[in-house]
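Our platform keeps sequence and structure together, in a single record for each protein. Such a record has a labelled line for the sequence and another for the backbone structure tokens. This encoding replaces a full spatial description with a residue-level series of whole-number codes. Below, we set out a record of this kind in full and without editing:
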Amino acid sequence: MAEFKAHKHSVRMSPRKGRLVADLIRGKKVGEAVAILKNLETTCAEPILKTLNSAVANAHYQNEQNSELNVNLDALFVKSILIDGGTILKRMTPRAKGSGYKILKRTSHITIVVADCK
């Protein structure tokens, strides 16, 4: 079973919200996962969709370069998807009496592994 990976680092989305979207497509076929991501209204779906398309493009490229693979691109499924926390951008908003509140702008690292059903 051949596996193909795609990574995307420091994406401006909360890891918690990204994991909710990732749980929807884990284990699904690629065509079904793309349809789910295109119909979601969350902003987290777009970078996950781009990373998934990159993993499929990696599979297509590796299949062309290596004739021994014989990967069926229609049978690809999402083997694993990881949304890890990245660096946190720390900002401050002014409040009353000279104090301030922290604003944490979170980033995520996306890793998607697709494999064929052999």
Summary: The two ends are 6 Å apart (CA to CA). The helical segments are 15-25, 30-39, 45-65. The first helix runs from residue 15 to 25. Residues 7 and 111 are 5 Å apart (CA to CA).
